[in-house]
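Q: Hi! New to this. If I give you a protein sequence and the SMILES for flavin-adenine dinucleotide, can you show me the bound structure?
A: Yes, paste them in.
Q: Okay, here:
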Amino acid sequence: MITRTADFDLSTRNTFRMKVRCALFVEITAEEDLQELDFASLPKPLMVMGGGSNLLFRGDFPGTVLHVAITGAPAWDPGSGLVTVGAGVVFDAFCDWAAQKDLWGPENLSLIPGECGASAVQNIGAYGVEVKDILADIRAWDTLEGKFVHISPSHCAYGYRTSLFKTDWKGRYIITYVTYRLSADPRPVLDYGGIRKALEGQEVLSPRLIRDTIIGIRNAKLPDPAVTGSAGSFFCNPVVDKAHFERIVSIAKEDNGQDCKVPHFEVGDRIKVPAAWMIEQCGFKGKANGGARVYRNQPLVIVNESGDATPDEIVALENAIIRAVEAKYGVTLHPEVEHI
Ligand SMILES: Cc1cc2nc3c(=O)[nH]c(=O)nc-3n(C[C@H](O)[C@H](O)[C@H](O)COP(=O)(O)OP(=O)(O)OC[C@H]3O[C@@H](n4cnc5c(N)ncnc54)[C@H](O)[C@@H]3O)c2cc1C
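A: Thanks. Here is the predicted structure of the protein with flavin-adenine dinucleotide bound:
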């Protein structure tokens, strides 16, 4: 079914809760709808939207927002371990389904907002797992060729929160189904974000136990999108070379004393430094600009604290953070949140 609504209010469709509208909102519930849709007649530009949890609308959108609301129960083939899920299924509902079936794969990605379609665009990640680790196939409508295609994840150039869907292929494919490969054999990933510690004393691990543990850790750190507007991590964590990292360490020691330790992770021969740490060191933790604030429990997140924050207030806070981190550490932070 195709539903078209002109002058649509997007404020409940984006987790930042920006009070914006689009000229036309189109929702489809089946693949055939894409064959029927007269793309040429739609107000331009066209954007595809999932749950709106990684977007910052800078103002009203002059064109068409298309939502793929293909849902339904996951189609599971126990022999191959493959499960195919509609692009409009809430990703966390899929994680819950897998935990119920005692299947391993997405448990560390529990509670990430958004839909399955976007999971393959974003290469969502958390607690040592990225969705590319469990992706098997992506089915999409190719707007250039006007036909359905299967895309192998090996062709998507997945990286840290990125893929060709966000770069060279931007706007070309409308994802309708995503196939994940799950496993009945235990595959726990425990070495990130305090999971192992939280599981101390547990003798039998299960996807459900890990899922529940991760939900507990996330709830303590991150704003609940049902209560406070945000788009999760606002910035990507920067990666620097070793010499640059040493300069950051010496600045940190000058600021905080010789015992100061700079959190970091090795990525090949380069070093990833948490942007949250830099933001906090620059004095932005808890800082507000109008209705927008740097979240106190996790400075990587900017929240719409008042519920009435404007896009300009958020962007001004974003720019102030980028300038301060650049001035102190010579590192340019890049937003993870897509600005529309
Ligand atoms: C509180 C909070 C915590 C978060 N934590 C994490 C985290 O731990 N890890 C993480 O990786 N992310 C996290 N995020 C970010 C966000 O949840 C993910 O980026 C998520 O995948 C976005 O899904 P969405 O359906 O909301 O997509 P949207 O924000 O609507 O869209 C994201 C992009 O995907 C494209 N897109 C969406 N659906 C389709 C489709 N069917 N076909 C083609 N393109 C499509 C859009 O055009 C856009 O470019 C968090 C966000 C919040 C609010």
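A: The CA atoms of residues 58 and 335 lie 14 Å apart. Let me know if you'd like me to explain how to read the tokens.
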